[in-house]
Amino acid sequence: MDQLLAIRVFVRITEAGSFAKAADSLDLPRSSVSKLLQDLEQHLRTKLVERSTRALTITPEGEAYRKHALKLLADLDDMDAAAADARSNPRGRLRVDVGSSLANLLIIPRLPDFRARYPDVDVLLGVSDRPVDLIGEGVDCVIRGGDLADTSLIARRLCTLHSVTCATPAYFAARGVPAHPKELEAGHLGVAYLFPQTGRSLPMHYSKEDEAYEISPRAAVSISESTAHTAALLAGLGIGQIFGFSAHLPLAQGRLTAVLEDWAQPTLPIHLVYPATRHPSAKLRAFIDWAVEIFAQQN
After folding, report:
1. Is 53 within the bounds of a domain?
2. Are strands 141-145 and 267-275 parallel, antiparallel or unpaired?
3. d(Cα 135, Cα 275) in Å, to the nearest integer?
4. Which of 181, 246, 252, 282 keeps 20 to 30 A from 119, CA to CA?
5. What is the C-alpha to C-alpha distance for residues 287 and 273, in angstroms, rounded to an integer?
């Protein structure tokens, strides 16, 4: 038995919650994953995981063993990094998941710079607005907006994004330019953003001194992906709120026009998030430092 590989398999199974997900993330046959865990349990003469048709449960002995295993694997990673000088030369595959607009407008255009700095790091970039199970899907980190609720994750704040209300000049020529948020509920068509996880539309928010409004104009189109949401505004389908980095170039080109700029509009904290159970590798530390640098320009 390759005990070190068996230990890595055991930890991955407990993180992923299934043999299948563990096998996929480790690029191993599912039969090998099952056999390695079985061999490890026989070697230790104790049951680490209780299996059922619906779920996996870590035994008390397995939980104690897992804590020691996590420390061991973290120490081994540090030893490997030091021996290979990986702190100055990170290497390996890095799985990152980023929301669509952030990926297309901020991350991907600057990836050549990251590749130039770290040519031995291969980036596997997942692009979507859906929630990602970092542990279950074997993702090293995600970049997402909102407050961090899951205490099993570590978050590094990157920036705060600000919203802008906009539509095409042709839309305003046809519908009029609103001078007050309440006007959006009469005579205007909205392009609504739908939360992928709930399917609910995101209202537009405005505040000024002691006034505050939550506005949901009649939606001409509702879209659950951020890049497509901006594209719908550019197509003249209605008015909507998007983040300033998405609107910056179309506003400069005159393809969109901003309105209600004297009203405070929503802000969103952006975090880079990774599992607390994982020791940050050299490649992840390199990506975190790089992300902090490029997102600082958005503050």
Report:
1. yes
2. antiparallel
3. 7
4. 246
5. 12
Number of domains in the chain: 2
DSSP for residue 103:
I
Q: What is the pLDDT of residues 209-238, one digit of tens each?
A: 999 999 999 998 999 999 999 999 999 999
Strand pairing of 190-193 and 153-167? unpaired
Kindly tell me the sign of the dihedral angle through the C-alpha atoms of 196, 200, 204, 208. negative
Report the distance separating Cα 257 and Cα 219, nearest Å: 19
| pTM of the predicted model as reported, rounded to 2 decimal places | 0.70
Q: How far is CA 192 from CA 21, 86, 170, 186, 223, in A?
A: 35, 46, 19, 16, 6
Percentages helix, strand, coil for the chain (3-state, rounded to 5) are 45, 25, 30
**φ, ψ (nearest 5 deg) of residue 294:** -75, -30
Helix 3-16 and helix 60-83, axial crossing angle in degrees, nearest 10: 120
Q: Residue 27 is part of which domain span? A: 3-83
pLDDT digits (tens, 9 = 90+) for 3-38: 888 998 998 888 888 888 888 888 888 888 888 998
Residue 288 has pLDDT above 90, yes or no: yes
Closest CA to 99 of 290, 242, 260, 1: 242
